[in-house]
Design a protein that fits this description.
It is a single chain. With 230 residues, the chain is α/β, with parallel strands linked by helices. It has one domain: Alpha-Beta Barrel (TIM Barrel). The chain has helices spanning 13-21, 33-39, 41-49, 64-77, 90-100, 117-124, 131-145, 157-164, 191-197, 206-209, 214-228; strands at 3-7, 28-31, 53-60, 81-85, 105-109, 149-151, 169-172, 201-204. Strand 7 (169-172), helix 9 and strand 8 (201-204) form a beta-alpha-beta unit. It starts with a strand and ends with a helix. The mean pLDDT is 92.
Length: 230
């Protein structure tokens, strides 16, 4: 069954804690650039002390030594999963994987869910990029470098599963309910569809954090993933 990760993309650590006080069943949380910049490592320590599995989503993309040191620091904080950007290249990913050892599990970010083919093509200076093939290519390089899994949009999950095999994690943002606004996400799907396609982890932010009843929204997503799950 796919696990639901609550993305704590909130303005402050106090707001994140207040939300979690309403979500007693949550096991995984994501800390990204907003909260890590504002609150720093202390928030991660607080979350780990609460017994939560922390997904540190900073998408490291730097020279190999710098990324390896960042991965080591995340492991020392007790982070369970973290991201590197696959466009950082094989040497960077290999150094990161070596630094991680068994923890944190490193997953490689491929093409951001905010991109469509046209915007990604402009970003990389290539015409008519096929996003499915691009994600497959990057996924293959991540596997060869020793990463534990891949981050991709819901649309690429079946293709990625064919590349990475049955054991590696596939972490999927861009989860929306039927009729939900896409916001700044271009490639989205429901929790049920992503789970049925083979996603192991579903990263969900606004459909939970902006819900009138966040606990009910979380339980609904968990049940949807369970009923359709990989």
């Amino acid at each position: 069954m796919s696990e639901v990760i609550v993305a704590l993309d909130l303005p402050s650590g106090s707001e994140a804690i207040r939300l979690l006080d309403r979500l007693a069943e949550v096991q995984w949380v994501k800390v990204g650039a907003i909260l890590m910049t504002r609150e720093g490592p202390e928030l991660v320590r607080v979350l780990v002390e609460r017994g939560l599995k922390v997904f540190l989503d900073l998408k490291w993309h730097d020279i190999p030594n710098t990324v390896a040191e960042a991965v080591s620091a995340a492991g020392a904080l007790g982070v369970s999963m973290a991201t590197v950007h696959t466009l950082g290249g094989a040497a960077m990913m290999e150094a990161a994987a070596k630094a991680a050892g068994s923890r944190p599990a490193l997953v490689g970010v491929t093409v951001l869910t905010s991109h469509d083919s046209a915007s990604y093509s402009r970003a990389v200076g290539r015409r008519g990029v096929d996003l499915d093939r691009e994600v497959e290519r990057q996924s293959g390089e991540a596997v060869q470098a020793g990463l534990a899994g891949i981050v991709c949009s819901p649309q690429e999950v079946p293709a990625v599963r064919g590349v990475v095999g049955p054991e590696r994690w596939i972490v999927v943002p861009g989860i929306r309910g039927q009729g939900d606004a896409r916001g700044d996400q271009a490639r989205v799907a429901t929790a049920g569809r992503a789970a049925a396609s083979g996603a192991t982890h579903l990263v969900v932010g606004r459909p939970i954090t902006q819900a009138l009843d966040p606990a009910a929204a979380f339980r609904g997503l968990v049940e949807e993933a369970r009923c359709s799950g990989f």
